[in-house]
Amino acid sequence: MATKKLELFRKRAMRVRRQLKKVARGKPRLSVHRSTRNISAQIIDDSRGVTLAAASTLEPALGLRSKKSVEAAARIGAEIAARARAAGVEEVVFDRGGYLYHGRLKALADAAREGGLKF
Fold first, then answer.
1. Of all helices (H) and strands (E), which one includes residue 29?
2. What number is the average pLDDT over the span 21-40?
3. If DSSP codes are grouped into helix, strand and coil, which group holds residue 33?
4. What is 37-94 written as a DSSP string?
5. Are 93 and 23 in contact (CB under 8 A)?
6. Other C-beta atoms lying within 10 Å of the C-beta of residue 119
7. Potential cystine with 55: which of 28, 31, 79, 82 (Cβ 3.0-4.6 Å)?
């Protein structure tokens, strides 16, 4: 059963990424990974194959108490926006992977928008 779920998740993620490639036009991709305990985001330049900025709840420097909350996701969104601006990135495409745009993912995206990223 678990392999079927994982297969369906990967199909959704590839479907999302395929659609993003149609509209990206050279923009970096804001990719999000969500686990049951943590959330991480990275900005990837697919044309060069490099990560431009990254932020995660696993970083002790951020000082997050609850790492699996909506507030922590919002903090990661604000942090990735600040790091993206420092790297010279202002506009990205949002890659939600196979996850629903809801809860922690939505909080991260909203905070990144408030931090100055356009998508």
1. strand 29-34
2. 92
3. strand
4. S-EEEEEEETTTTEEEEEEETT-GGG--S-TTSHHHHHHHHHHHHHHHHHTT--B-EE
5. yes
6. 14
7. 79
Give every CB contact of residue 34 below 8 A, 6+ residues apart in sequence: 97, 99, 104, 105
Q: Which CATH class is domain 2-114?
A: alpha beta
Find out whether 13 and 97 touch, Cβ atoms under 8 Å.
Answer: yes
Q: Which residues pair with 95 in a beta bridge?
A: 31
CB 86 within 8 A of CB 53: yes
Q: What's the confidence (pLDDT) of residue 1?
A: 61
